[in-house]
Amino acid sequence: MSSEPPSAEAVFDTVGAAYEDAFAGLPTQAASLRWILSQLAESDIKRAKIVDIGCGTGRPVCSVLSEAGHDVLGIDISAAMLEAARARVPAAKFEKLDVRDFNPPAASYDVATAYFSLIAGVTQNDIREIIKKIFGFLKDGGIFVFSTVPLDAESADIHWMGNPVRVSSLAPEAAVAAVKEAGFEVLFEEVSTFTPKAEEAGICKADQVWEETHLFVYAKKPAAK
């Protein structure tokens, strides 16, 4: 019997659309979306080109940003999540794609978001390289919002909301450093806690849920001099 945990794709296909219910009402995410919209308004960008990496069901990120009139692409590895996203957020576009295989032209996006999507099925080096890739495809002055569960973990096998999964992450200081080392200017960082409503969403039992530490980072690609 293999000791390998299920792939990240299989885990998120299992969780499916219930993920949205488990994380509904996350105040730090809502605040970050308001910040993105305010930054775009200040820059007078009427129709920004945005990619949400690990978009899940498309809500709230793709829905909020597309309803504000922006051109939004959500990418995810989970077919189940994307099926829900296409039904729930018809104004956005969605593709089944691993961010490691996402290679848009340089300086082609105004905004990139990665909410808790650089954890499952990646290595610490992957996280750093993906952040560098994001820097490359953002325009000068482009916005990046990154959130994660900040731990010093390298390919660790854990149980997450009742599901075995292999994860990697960076401790808070290392995660912020990775964003800066990619070339971004970090404008805001915050560590908070949140307990997913996974039992209420029907994902797992109450004793399989715990309070998570969350790191949110708001960053900008410096404008060309």
From TrEMBL:
GO terms for molecular function: methyltransferase activity. Keywords: Methyltransferase, Transferase. It comes from the Eukaryota. GO terms for biological process: methylation. Gene3D superfamilies: Vaccinia Virus protein VP39. Residues 50-142 form the Methyltransferase domain. Pfam families: Methyltransf_25 (PF13649). This is S-adenosyl-L-methionine-dependent methyltransferase. It comes from Echria macrotheca.
